[in-house]
């Protein structure tokens, strides 16, 4: 998967996750992309525990995996920032 695909999937997953976690007001476009890309890596790691594949190309499944990872990442960041 090319860098442009990672950026597009990361932007979509990060934006959707920030909307769902109600952090969209405090995040910009670059932060959404970074959260989505890190979420893709984290989602792939999580899916590995269930013997499923991670992000593999530009597909709806990859977007879902990155979205799952971005949700987990934002939940962790919210828990840390509350303390």
Could you please describe the fold and organization of this structure?
The chain has one domain (about 5-80). Helix content is about 75%, strand content about 0%. The chain has three helices and no strands. Helix 1 packs across helix 2, helix 1 crosses helix 3 (about 60-80) and helix 2 (about 30-50) packs across helix 3. The longest helix has 23 residues, at about 60-80. The protein is globular, with a radius of gyration of 12 Å. The termini are far apart.
Coarse structural class: mainly alpha
Radius of gyration: 12 Å
Q: What is the helix content?
A: over 70%
Indicate the low-confidence ranges by residue numbers. Answer: none
Mean of pLDDT: 84
Question: What is the count of distinct domains?
Answer: 1
Ends apart, CA distance between termini: 38 Å
The percentage of residues in β strands lies in under 5%
Task: Count every helix, treating DSSP H or I runs of 4 or more residues as helices.
Answer: 3
Largest sheet: none
Oligomer: single chain
Shape: globular
- How would you spell out the order of helices and strands? HHH
Question: How many strands appear in the DSSP assignment?
Answer: 0
């Amino acid at each position: 998967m090319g860098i442009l695909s990672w950026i597009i999937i990361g932007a979509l997953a990060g934006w959707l996750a920030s909307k769902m976690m109600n952090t969209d007001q405090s995040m910009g476009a670059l932060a959404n992309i970074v959260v989505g890309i890190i979420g893709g890596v984290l989602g792939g790691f999580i899916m590995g525990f269930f013997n499923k594949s991670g992000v593999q190309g530009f597909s709806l499944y990859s977007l879902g995996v990155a979205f799952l990872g971005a949700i987990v990442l934002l939940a962790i960041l919210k828990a840390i920032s509350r303390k």
